[in-house]
Amino acid sequence: MGETVLVTGGAGYIGSHACKALAAAGHVPVTYDNFSTGWREAVQFGPAEEGDLRDRDRLGAVMARHRPAAVMHFAALSNVGEASRDPGLYWENNVVGSLRLVEAMAEAGVENLVFSSTCATYGEQDGVMLDESCAQTPTNAYGASKRAVEDLVRNFAAAPGVSLRHVFFRYFNVAGADPETQLGEFHRPETHLIPLALDAVRGRRPELTVNGEDYPTPDGTCVRDYVHVTDLISAHLLGLGYLLAGGAPEVFNLGTGRGFSVREVVEAVARVTGEPVPHSVGPRRAGDCASLVSGSVKAAELLGWAPAHSTLEEMIATAWAWHQRPGYSR
Questions:
Q1: Which domain holds residue 86?
Q2: Which of 3, 183, 209, 313 shows the smallest number of beta carbons within 10 Å?
Q3: Local structure of 85: helix, strand or coil
Q4: Quick check: helix, strand or coil at residue 132?
Q5: Has residue 147 been placed in a domain?
Q6: pTM over 0.70
């Protein structure tokens, strides 16, 4: 018998892929989402519970009803530009919401937490292959809020009478879509490079704006480490199994160790789609680092994780297939 897993943000891009994988593995994913950025039609693999993370009573009622063995916590605001303009929104939503979630878990006796953190906690460390021991010096409220959630989880886990086993996954750039095209990537507003480029190819937007070309990188555009969403979620299932088997608290980077510049991604989109990507160059986006590339040795060693689908071409091809599926109307 599988376990019931509460998936916060289960109607979003990554959370919905997690629900599909959990169900395929025999678990029961229960989506908890306020549907402010998630999509109701993405909830296809288990029960849905509508609610806000900051609603402590609602969280308690949902946990009492479903009695989850673990929580996968994806729910968060994640727009770097917005975080730079309105940091209070990110501290309120990401940190206060996570505090209420952890309080509800402690009261309900839910002892296992898989937390969706981010490489943005490392801040500006250009030229460094980032591993889990690197200093966390975030440059924007998004990264700072995620680092704060890591701290509060550790604080609760150290409190007398509280059992809170936890795994933190610090993501690099997540891309791609479900190979069966049931699920894909779409945000309101869209800020991620690959879907923006695909929208430009399809004529759904006039052009892609490249945010800055004067960074200290080989071609002047930002460099990021991309990981396919299905590879990312495979790590989450391994992390869940690790916790359910009694594993100690751990933090893992999830990336490939290979960075691609914005220009390289744009060129790859043109190759995969067979169409040029209309684009222009704009100013830098507030809060963006020049380069973020992962070292993910620990996930391989402790969890046995290896990205199997994270070539740039496969990530773009699966996203393109989802964009082209019948009924796509975003």
A1: 4-175+227-254
A2: 313
A3: helix
A4: coil
A5: yes
A6: yes
